[in-house]
Amino acid sequence: MSWIVFAVAAPAILALTNLIESGLLEKRIPDPTAFVIITGLFKIVPVLFLVVWGAGLWPGAGLAAFAALTGVVGILIYVPYFQGLHRAAAADVLLMWQLWPILAILAARLLLHETLHPVQYLAIALLLVCSALGSQGGERRRGPGSARAWMLLASVLQAAEVLMQRWLFLRTSFTTGYAWMAAFSFLTALVLLAARPVSRKVVREAFRGKSLKILVVNQALDVAGITSSEYATSLVPASLISATEGLQPLFVLLFGALAPFRKFSPQPPSGRAHQIRRAVAIVCAVAGLALIGI
Fold first, then answer.
1. Of 41-50, 62-71, 126-135, where does mean pLDDT reach its minimum?
2. CB–CB of 288/247 below 8 Å?
3. pTM of this structure
4. How far apart, in Å, do the first and last CA atoms of the chain sit?
5. Cβ-contact 16, 223 below 8 angstroms
6. Which of 36, 190, 286, 294 could form a disulfide with 78 if both were Cys (CB 3.0 to 4.6 A apart)?
7. Can you give 193-254 as a three-state secondary structure string?
8. Using one digit for the tens of pLDDT, what is the confidence trace for 168-220?
9. Which of 235, 79, 233 has the alpha carbon at shortest distance from 154?
10. Residue 70: which domain range?
């Protein structure tokens, strides 16, 4: 059961990055695309580590191409995620994102032939309620598309990535698959950097400004969280990983209440109706995840 340690550590670590990123988008780096590029550029760190370690071997043309596609999907998830985070508080964005475990579990049943127990249907219904409640209110900015629309796209991409990772790890080692995925995430970030002059300027200023130390810490946490998640995915069915990673919004609320993180996370709307919706969404998330198999 060691996979549980990695599967639960991942959403806990990534919840910290959610709070930090929310604060940086609000106050210091107001360009979501620039944040996608920065996240992708830091993917070179695990690539270099794995290469030095002797991992990242050639898995064959077919698996290398599939790993490349998985890496591209993995970095593109950040596009709708940062757009959603630009428009709503971190906790609300993560509650909206609760659709992805549902999509992943259903797709794993159809495509990977993983078993779906009858009680999991009730869990899926509860997670649907959680996502629906989380998408009501909470947006703080206007722009092309709403936070809920962006997070629906993020859910589809996240579910696809988990299934692709599981398929890949069933056919090659974790270190080899991870190295190739991270490498192509990095290359995708380079393409975005070259194609977006405005974002390139923001990235340059971020690396030169006072935000650099926070960015380094945040990206170190992001790499650790993603590595933990992908290692757990290599060990057990995608359905279980999808369920445990749905704990992320709960960690966001827990950490967001702590004094050290309040300066990073803009305060969400404090209306009574909004707080009640959020509380019910959290209860549905906990119950749904428990039924799925935590």
1. 126-135
2. no
3. 0.79
4. 11
5. no
6. 36
7. HHHCHHHHHHHHHHHHCCCHHHHHHHHHHHHHHHHHHHHHHCCCCHHHHHHHHCCHHHHHHH
8. 999 998 888 998 999 999 999 999 999 999 899 889 888 887 778 888 999 99
9. 79
10. 2-292
